[in-house]
Amino acid sequence: ILLDDDILDQLSLSQVPKEQSKPNSHLSLLSAAVCWYKMGMSPYDNLICQTPPFRMWLGIVEYLFCHDGMLEESIETALNDRYTQAEDLVFYTAVTGWGQCIELGSFEGYRERFEKTAEFLSHKLEEGKDLSTMIIKKLTDRNESN
Fold this sequence. Notes:
Layout: H1 5-11, H2 27-38, H3 52-66, H4 68-80, H5 82-103, H6 107-121, H7 125-145
Helix pairs in contact: 2-3, 4-5
């Protein structure tokens, strides 16, 4: 699944040139890897890994962990960059809220969060669909040429 620099550069959503980008903690990627480890689960053995979005997600997590400099920068940023810590706290709070709905078995709370999130992102749906199609096509083309 391992993605290369070329593919990731083509799939980047950032409008900022690579040389000018700010460090990122990649908290969501680190969190996924820690969860898989703590659960004693290999994401490669899970059927969900066969879906294109999950394969892409897994490829990005692999990329982070296979590039020591990027991984080190992510950890350093998470520990020492105040702006990034504030952004990560927002992510953590959101994840905790979703987790509490699941832990408490609150389907109503889960549905309410889902519907509010869907409403918030509704104006981005078409753009996201087009981007997902483009990403899946690039990954499929890459796999067919290998």
